[in-house]
Amino acid sequence: MENRLTSLYTLQLVDSSLDELQEMKGDLPKIVAELSETVKNKLALKKQLDDILKKSIAGRDKTDVDILTLKEKIEKHKTQQFQVKTNKQYDMLAREMDNAQDKITQLQKEMENLENKAEQAKEDSTKLQPEIEELQSELAERKKELAAVNKEHEDEELKLKHQREKLVSRISKSDYQMYERIRKAKEGRAIVKVQRNSCGGCFNRATPQRVLELRKNSAIITCERCGRILVSDEIVESAKKLL
Ligand SMILES: [Zn+2]
After folding, report:
1. CA 43 to CA 184: how far, in whole Å?
2. For the chain, what is the domain count?
C-alpha cells in the first residue's frame, strides 16, 4: 500500500515540475498557436480576394470582346441596309441593330459592375498585404522565443516526461483516473502533504481519526473539505528518494 501512495505522490512531484516548466513558457505556446491561426485565415482571405480580382478581370475582358463583336455586327448591318431591295428586309436589319444596341448597353453595365468588383477586391487585397506581413514577422519572432525557451529546458522536460511514463505504467488505472480528476479540479495539486495535522492544500484540520489512518500509509485518505489526497511525511520522503 505504501508503494501505491508513493508512486502517486512521485507522479505529483513530476507533474508539478512539468507545470513549472510550462509556466516558464508562459503564454508563448498559446500566442504562437493563435497567431498561426490568424495568419492562416488572413492568407485565405487574401487568396479569395485575388481570385475575385482575377475572375472579374477575365469576365470584363470577355465582355469587352462581346461588345466589340456586336459593334462589328451593327456596322455590317448598316452596310447591308444599303443593299437590300425591300422595306421588309430593311426593317428586319433595323430591328437586329436595335437588339444588338440593347445588348451592348446591358453588357456595358455588366462591364462596369465587374470593373468595380475588381477594383474593390484589389483595394482590399492590397490593404491586407502589409497586415499579413506584420503578423508573419511577429509570428516568426514569437516562434523564435518559444524555440529558445523549449531548447533551454528540453533535457529536463524530456527526463520528466520519461519519468512520468514509467510512473503511470506502475499506477492502477482507477488510481490514475482519480488522481487526474482531482488534479484537474484543484489547479494541478491532487496530493498534498499533511502539515501539523492539517491539509497542505486548504489547511483544513484533519480529524484525529484521519491522522491516525494517514500515519499507517495504507489507504487513500482524502481531505474532507477540498478532496485532495493526503499523504504523510514518510510518503513524501520515500517519493523524493524515487526521483
Ligand atoms: Zn484540503
Report:
1. 37
2. 2
- At 213, list the grid cell: 489512518
**What is the CA(188)–ligand 1 centre distance, in A?**
14
The parent domain of residue 65 ranges over 25-154
Shared-domain flag, residues 42 and 79? yes
| CA distance linking residue 189 with residue 199, whole number of Å | 12
**pLDDT tens figures, 24-47:** 889 999 999 999 999 999 999 999
Global pTM?
0.63
State the CATH number of the domain containing residue 43.
1.10.287.1490
If you measure from the C-alpha of residue 184 to the centroid of ligand 1, how many angstroms do you get, rounded to a whole number? 15
Cα(230) to ligand 1 centroid in Å equals: 8
Q: Quote the ligand 1 centre to 231 CA distance (angstroms).
A: 11
Check: CB of residue 185 under 8 Å from CB of residue 223: no
Q: Determine the distance separating the centroid of ligand 1 and the alpha carbon of 199, expressed in angstroms.
A: 5
